[in-house]
Amino acid sequence: MTNRKPFKMAVCYDFDKTLSPDDMQTFTLIPSFGIDKSVFWQETEALTRESGMEQNLSWMFNLIKYSKFKGRSIHREYFREAGAAVPLYEGVTTWFDRLNTYALKRGIEIEHYIISSGLKEIIEGSAIATHFKKIYASSYYYTADGIAEWPAQVINYTTKTQYIFRISKGVLSEYDSRVNDVIPAKERHMPIENMVYIGDSATDIPCMRLVKSEGGYSIGVFDPTLNNTEKVSKLLSDGRLSYYAPADYREGAPLDLYLKRVIDEIAAKEERKALQNELQ
Predict the structure, then answer these.
(1) 7-22+89-277, what's its fold?
(2) Averaged pLDDT of the chain
(3) pTM
């Protein structure tokens, strides 16, 4: 029994206002075009209303519009440079290694994933990009010269849920249609009941509900400096969340302690199932 392979669990994260305190575009990308961030988002919202365009397509289109207006083509490398400057909440940079170490001692291997409406290329440039098995996020189509030309992949609050199923079934490529195949629970890469989803707002509700309804754990976080719990407390009372806490990822913080108890619970459950299976 001591030679068993580690059991698996997944922790899935939104990015903006979950791991980072604001929308990733606002820190360096939007200001680099000489635009006030509030003006940019107001214009994006107006475009969404006037054109009927999907909201995430609107901001991606707006960035391209400004890049052409300013005569500054956006290269893939520029997005990644912007990602390196994105600030993160306290404790995020050491969170993954600490959680992995704790889990392995209990026979659990954690896979970390991003499921975000933000820009994949910016997340790939962040200080934590290497910790994720897969980053699911919106992205651009690039010309042969590496210039962003048009949205290639757009993720919104409803399409986020498909990635929960991709992770569960082990069908990780965005273009692999096998995600629609029927895969028996025993043959799945990752049972949803062994998944945690961490997000901050209403855009995460579909994933939160899906994971929680399948026996997994959905967690809401809020900015510790604002201490505004209104959104997450409502999500908890509406049955969308298992727990909520400040977006403080330091050791000993409520979020850290709760995740460790989740790991303990999954480890005990998987060990019990393994012992039962040995009798069959």
Answers:
(1) Rossmann fold (3.40.50)
(2) 91
(3) 0.93
